[in-house]
Amino acid sequence: MISKWQWLWAQLSRTLWVRASLYVVFSIGAALLAVLVERMLPGPLPIDIGADAVERILDILASSMLAVTTFSLSVMVAAYSAATSEVTPRATRLLMQDTTTQNVLGTFIGSFLYSLVGLIALSTQVYGESGRVIMFGMTMLVVALIVITMLRWIEHLSHFGRVGDTTSRVEEVAARALNDRINNPCLGARALQEDSIPADARPLYPEHSKYVQHLDVAALAECAEERDLELYVVVLPGGFVHPAAPLLWLRGEQDEDCDQELRDCFTLGELRSFDQDPRFGFSVLSEIASRALSPAVNDPGTAIDILGRGVRMLSAWTDYEQPGQADEVRYPRVWLMPLKLDDLFDDLFGPIARDGAARIDVQLRLHKAMQALTALAPVFAGPAQRLGREALALAEHAMVLELDKERVRKLAASA
């Protein structure tokens, strides 16, 4: 589990401008490195490169990299627009955090500035004879890097922003968040039951109406140890909070500084985050399936694919049957509500059962998914049977052919 500042740094490192800025700094440093290396040489190099030869290469790089960067930016924006309209706007953030795209753009922008700085240095005669040789060698390395980057970019564009690629990205982050929660039940705190908050506990309210993007349980525990508090957290990452609903309940002496210190452990934002919130990833997958089942798209294959992905992700839940065991508790002064399996079922399978109620292919695949989960572990039996009954009721209402209804009834009964 990462702290608040580690999480903020992770969010910052995923932004395009940070990675591009690093490439810019490295490129400018590389262009000026020849001056430093030339001064450290004991004597002139045996090879002589004319200024015109290096200048022509740098001029070609400067003009071409500017055009390539502009083209790549237009392709990136087009991919974001396609994902927004064809998949879901919530998944666009994952495309914006794509490291391959950021590295490609950073390489192109950095190469442009490298060429520009090199041309300025050549025109002002900063480089001597040895400096031009070093600059020529470094330029050859930059050209090789550009060629490799372009080949990688061409291959990446063949699937970047497509429905399957975006769905895989959402599945990856959702599965990672779910596995982190399985490995850290209740994020290291004690399991909180809904009726176990002491009667003498006092509430702590947030100052704004936003989503909980990150919860630093370690910082909460440290504050509780220092001030001899017991903290009962009633919101999970991904929950929407407002000043009329408490973030947590606490027992012990408190003051305004303590309250603000506790509030700072909750990172709030206008949008939900995938990192600590597996339910958000499941909800985004269900949004993709719902859009695919809409009459405008009419793509039941995508919904069926997401049902399979849901079975694959939830299969890891077999290790999470008893959250909050004694050997898992690292912060004994903090209580946190555990993640509920029924909520994950409702987030992922509920919308698909509703929007695909009239389609026999989706209904059959949904009930087979419930059968597969039930066969994997007994912990899935209750949620799967409940959702199967709800899906059957929706199908009975939406389907037209009695033959299709009978097929769904038989499959639901066999579950």
TrEMBL record:
InterPro entries (alphabetical): DUF2254_membrane (IPR018723)
Swiss-Prot/TrEMBL keywords: Membrane, Transmembrane, Transmembrane helix
Pfam families noted in UniProt: DUF2254
Statement: the UniProt record of this protein carries the keyword Transmembrane helix: yes
The UniProt record lists the keyword Membrane: yes
Transmembrane segments: 20-37, 57-83, 104-127, 133-154
Entry protein name: DUF2254 domain-containing protein
Organism: marine sediment metagenome
